[in-house]
Every structure is written in structure tokens, then in C-alpha cells.
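ok trying again, last paste got cut off:
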Amino acid sequence: MKLVSWNVNGIRAVHRKEQLVPMVETLKPDVLCLQETKARSEQSEVDLPEYEEYWNSAERKGYSGTAVFSKIKPLSIIEDFPEAIVKKYGLKDGFGDTNAEGRVLVLEFSDFYILTVYTPNAKRDLGRLPLRDKHWDPAFLAYMKLLEEKKSVIACGDFNVAHKEIDIARPKENKNSAGFTKEERTGFDNYIMAGFIDTFRMFHNEGECYTWWSNFNHARERNIGWRIDYFLVSSALKEKVKKANVHMDIFGSDHCPISVEIES
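nice, full thing came through this time. structure:
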């Protein structure tokens, strides 16, 4: 089974650029997970007849959102965090309710769950860092572990954090920047310590492999980027992971797609 994840930064925008369908034709995913769709399903003009579509759109129009396009019919679809997780961790702050922003979408298959996520950005002034540190990251880990009680988990998407110095072009200059703070990196450490595996690092130890670039100062042309998009898998799936890649040659968004191949 081949899985692809891509923060499209607006599904309508990437479709107008005529980049989404060619990406699908090139990578040929069995399951395609999208983040930052910024639309409801009825607003999308994307036509992928081989796939069934599952959407979780934000209550706020034109904002956030996730979607999954799958050739394989799931057993169930789950939107957002469950009530028990929300109650325990609290997911609101002065910027809004993250559980109403379409950030989490889960499809259940026979052998595992596929969870796609668009993690809240801590914001340039770090105004949302307390939410990330004390609420979102612990809640997301708790949810992965809750799902894992039933079957293995594949979690993918835009995690909005560069985990290690190798995952960012300029670590020293960004030491206290959103997406590379100690708190956010510790949150991701906790995922790894809980048994979830960064699939890309199973196969690639080199630097300069990024998934997001700023739109300023020709960052992508110069490859001044960040690796903030991931496929994580439960340790029970480690031996089934056959490939993991970033596709830096595919354009259309400020992120590039990532992929993983799982033996089914």
C-alpha cells in the first residue's frame, strides 16, 4: 500500500495550478492524505474517480481542514479528537478552538488506522506555543495511544515542527522560532519515546531533505527549508515499512508531498 501526504495550502489553489492531479498520476497513492485544504468538499473541483473522498473541514470558511482520498474503502471514519481527550486536555485558546478547525481525520482499515493531522502553528510571536506545549501535543499523543489500543497507527501530515537540527537548514538562526522551539521539539520527542517511528529516518540519514520552504527570499530555489511533514508508524509496523520519501521535485504548494510504502 502506498500512502502520500501533502499540505496543499489550499486544495482549490493547487488544483488551479494544475499540480494536484499530475502529482496523483506520478506518485499513484492508494491513500492520499491532504492538509490545509481550506475548503469544504462541495467547493472542490478535483475529480479523482478512482478515489472515495473523506473531508473534515473547519467551521471557519477557507481555513485549515484535512481530507483523505482513498482507493480502499475504510471500515470507519472519525473526525476530530474524541470528547474524552478534549475534556482532559482542553484545546481552546485565545485564537480559537482547534477541535473545530478540521485538523484531525482518521480512517480505520483492517490492519491499522491512518490518521492525518494539520498541527496548529505556534505563530511567529509564539502566541500559540502554550497551547501546543501544554495541550495539543499531549492530546495528540494520547489520541494516538488510544487508537493503538485497538490496532496499529499510521499518523501523517504537517506536524509544524522540525524535530532535529538535521531537519532544518538554519538551526542556529531559528533556535527560538515557531516550529523549532525546545517545547515543540520535546513534544515530538515524546511521540518517538512513546514508540512511534519517523519512517523517513529509517531510510535517510542525510540533511537538506525538507518539506516546507518560506515564500520569501527564494527559499525553495536555495533549499533553505524545514522538514515538518512526517509519516509516523507504530513500532509494530516497523518491519512492514518498505520505503519512505520526500518529493522535493513536486511543486504547487509551499510544502512538498511525502510518501511511505507499507507491506499489506
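cool. The helical segments are 11-16, 20-27, 83-89, 129-148, 182-193, 200-203, 219-222. The chain has a mean pLDDT of 97.
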